Each structure stands twice: as structure tokens, then as C-alpha cells.
């Protein structure tokens, strides 16, 4: 039996998709740079990874400090499109490159303004139910115990925190 088949006990069908929680990552970034007004009407932000912790039933470890960051596109339609890459290190020492894409947008007309104030420390935290923060990562890893990451569709549901993000990831079975 393929190790990936033994890893998950359930299977999705076209009319009944199933998700299984695999890990949560807490990312810390305090260094920020921005290109505010490009000719396209968009802006580009960069946050650089300071550190991170990974905990879950399928993966534990850390985000390797200074191994990358998120170069988000601030679109004119008030959608932030993530474009992040950073290295993860599993508890067993395996290195995993994570390429993480996704979207953040406000459920209310003023949510993104509130998010901006929160991130820049001039406003209060914004409740998670006021924004959509979803990710769809891909991974690169050596053959071995973590290569299931390269065989499954993984989706994440994120939550902004004062100094970074917390994202819970699920495998689509």
C-alpha cells in the first residue's frame, strides 16, 4: 500500500468532499516594506519571516527564521493576494519548502481599512468573521515521511494576529 493511502482513512468523492486537519502554523513577522502606488493601481507589500511554529497531528516543527516572506499584491479591488515562500523544518530535521498563495478580503466595506490600521498598530484587532483569509499552498520535500504533502491538495483558513498569522491547514482527501 502506498504510504499516502495509509496516512488518511477517508476519501472524498465528487459529491462529498472531505477535509482532515493536518497542522497549524503560527508565523511571526515584524519587518514590513511597501510599494504603495504602482502604475497598475496596485501596491506590493513585503513581510519577512522572523519565526514560526508548526503543530498538528500530521506535521510538527518550525518555520525557519529569515528563510523567506510574503510578497502580497494589494489589488485595487481591496483584495490582498498572497505570494509567500519560506522553508519549514519538521521535528525530524526534514526541510520542506512551502509556496503559499491565497486571498484576504473584507466582508464589510471598511474591513480592509480596519485591517490596515490594526497591522500598523493604530487600530484595534479585527474579528476573524469580518474577513476572508484562505490559502492554497504547495510543498517541495525529499522522498520520505513528509512527501504526502506533495500528493495532496492542502487548503488553509487563516487568522491575523498582532505580529503575524495563524493558519490551520487541511488535506482534501
Layout of strands and helices, then pairs:
Blueprint: H1 3-7, E1 19-28, E2 31-35, E3 43-48, E4 51-55, E5 61-63, E6 69-74, E7 79-90, E8 95-106, H2 111-119, E9 131-135, E10 138-141, E11 153-161, E12 164-172
Antiparallel strand pairs: 1-4, 1-12, 2-3, 3-6, 4-5, 5-7, 6-7, 7-8, 8-9, 8-10, 9-11, 11-12
Overall residue-averaged pLDDT value: 93
Structural class: mainly beta
CATH topology: Porin
What is the number of domains?
Answer: 1
Helix fraction bin: under 10%
Cα-to-Cα separation, first versus last residue: 16 Å
Query: Outline, from the CA principal axes?
Result: globular
Radius of gyration: 17 Å
Q: Based on DSSP secondary structure assignment, what is the total number of beta strands?
A: 12
CATH architectural grouping: Beta Barrel
The biggest beta sheet is recorded as:
8 strands, antiparallel, barrel
> How many helix segments?
2
Label this structure with key terms:
about 170 residues; 8-stranded antiparallel barrel; 2 helices
Structure in words:
The chain is mostly beta strands and 173 residues long. It contains two helices and twelve strands, in the order H-E-E-E-E-E-E-E-E-H-E-E-E-E. The longest helix is centred in the middle third of the chain and has 9 residues, at 111-119. It is globular, with a radius of gyration of 17 Å. The model has no long low-confidence stretch (mean pLDDT 93).
Amino acid at each position: 500500500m502506498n504510504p499516502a493511502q495509509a496516512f488518511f482513512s477517508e476519501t472524498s468523492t465528487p459529491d462529498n468532499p472531505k477535509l482532515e486537519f493536518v497542522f497549524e502554523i503560527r508565523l511571526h513577522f515584524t519587518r514590513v516594506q511597501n510599494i504603495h502606488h504602482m502604475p497598475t493601481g496596485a501596491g506590493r507589500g513585503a513581510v519577512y519571516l522572523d519565526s514560526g511554529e508548526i503543530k498538528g497531528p500530521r506535521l510538527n516543527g518550525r518555520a525557519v527564521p529569515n528563510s523567506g516572506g510574503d510578497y502580497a499584491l494589494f489589488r485595487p479591488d481591496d483584495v490582498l493576494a498572497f505570494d509567500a515562500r519560506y522553508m519549514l523544518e519538521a521535528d525530524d530535521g526534514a526541510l520542506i519548502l512551502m509556496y503559499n498563495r491565497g486571498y484576504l478580503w473584507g466582508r464589510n466595506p471598511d474591513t480592509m481599512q480596519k485591517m490596515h490600521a490594526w497591522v500598523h498598530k493604530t487600530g484595534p484587532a479585527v474579528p476573524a468573521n469580518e474577513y476572508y483569509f484562505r490559502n492554497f499552498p504547495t510543498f517541495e520535500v525529499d522522498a520520505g515521511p513528509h512527501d504526502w504533502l506533495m500528493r495532496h491538495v492542502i487548503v488553509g483558513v487563516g487568522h491575523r494576529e498582532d505580529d503575524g498569522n495563524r493558519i490551520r491547514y487541511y488535506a482534501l482527501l
